[in-house]
Amino acid sequence: MPESDLAAQVEDVLSVDPDEFQAQVEADAEVIVDEIDDGTFDNPQAIIGFEYEFYAVNAETSALQRVPRRLLELIGFEKELGLHNAEMSTSPQPLNPHGLAAQEAEVKARLSAAEDRTGSEGMRLVSDAMWTIPPEGETARRYLTDSVADRGVRIASNMSDSVRYHAMANSEASVGMRLEAPHVDLEADTVMPESLITSIQPHYQVPHARDLPTYFQYAIRIAGPLLALGVNSPFFPPDIYDSDADPEEILADGLDEHRIGVFETVLNRYGDDPDKVRFPRDVASVEEAVERVVEDRTIVPMPVTTSDRFDDEFAHFRLKHGTYWRWVRPVFGGATRSDANARIEFRPIAAQPTVRDSIAFQAAFAGLVESMFRREHPVRHLDWVVAKDNFYGAARDGLDADIYWITNSGEETTDHEAVYEDIFAHAKDGLQSRGLSDEEAAKYLYPLRQRARHRLTPASWKRGRVRERLDDGEGFEDAVYGMQAEYIERQAETLIDGTFADWVGRGDTELEREE
């Protein structure tokens, strides 16, 4: 899209009256609550879905690469924030053996087809938490901060043509537009630095909307332990670090999941209390879950066009929900009345080294909330502040974090083995309650169980590779680039059919021994 056309669309967005928009959001909320009362959002089955984000690289050099829009359309993926991004969303399926298998099969089928097409054009789609090698001939800093002004409208040069993202840089309800992390301080005039990160987002549709608050409590409390298993972004692109940063200090001070901080510092405005992006509080009722969205600070009041979709009856609410940024958040939607659903979107987990690892998180999340709700697991009563500390501790230290937990027997513990024994037991129980056999449930959870058992995560693997390269005399930039190239090379061999456990010598052979 030409810059002038994009600027005109941004101007149209900025002309929307925020008070009128908010009034429509409030009216939409009443529609949702009425439909909840009527049972419209209830469904006897638990339904699961999945969003999966990727970035593209040059297949030969592993450098970041922009994806031509025509290619994105050909492979059936959706645009995301950056020109290098691509996103896939699966079709919702019941939580049962066939539904989970269908989710995995759909991801593999679509990704395999996409890889064939992108490969013929010399690029790869990478499943990872954060890219570290900028496009050839460019720096990451320039790529993330380059922008132009068109008739007074600020347009990010490497951002997709999504009007909402560009409008954020031009709205009076501003966002942070900076990166802050140990030895990193980058300022931008758009939200483009967020395009450093990619994630997976499992969705779980609750059978009865009125029960959403309880499921939500459990989702909040498992966020920390699952995040600890999935950490995958211990390094930024090297040229983003302060020029005088020492590699040893970067290794010592860095977080295992910088992705959390990137999302928060880019989108949170300095001085806001509370922040826009944050760890969510419990809700006492489904009405309160709806009201939280209504009361949230509006970033971009978008113009609304409607169709005959059921959820267009609350279209303004849905648009506002797009910037309701919480690490776990409720969602209300459905194209038709029969498809109407109240679900939980689980956002803490980065994109993982392989499809099986990513689907393992979907299975674990769904199994956990399913089992914990049904068995009234006492971790629901874990203090919210402790759950929040678990979350940010996991982002900082991964599986070395002290996770505070309450087991099914009511025992309070920080013992690593006790915590994850309880978690995997209930994840497996939840899957089996939905019809999976013991063997099927164990196979889905195996990649994560191996991480917990051996205290190995993608972040610790990355740290180890960089450490080895530094010890061999490489400079920091070469060490990070070398690690990233090895990550992409190993992923090329295992993305569809392998697991991260194969990278560290603990793959399916060990699973067979266990069985």
TrEMBL record:
It comes from the Archaea. InterPro entries: GCL_type2/YbdK_subfam, GCS2, Gln_synth/guanido_kin_cat_dom, UCP012666. SUPFAM superfamilies: Glutamine synthetase/guanido kinase (SSF55931). Gene3D superfamilies: 3.30.590.20. This is Gamma-glutamyl:cysteine ligase YbdK, ATP-grasp superfamily. Pfam families: GCS2 (PF04107).
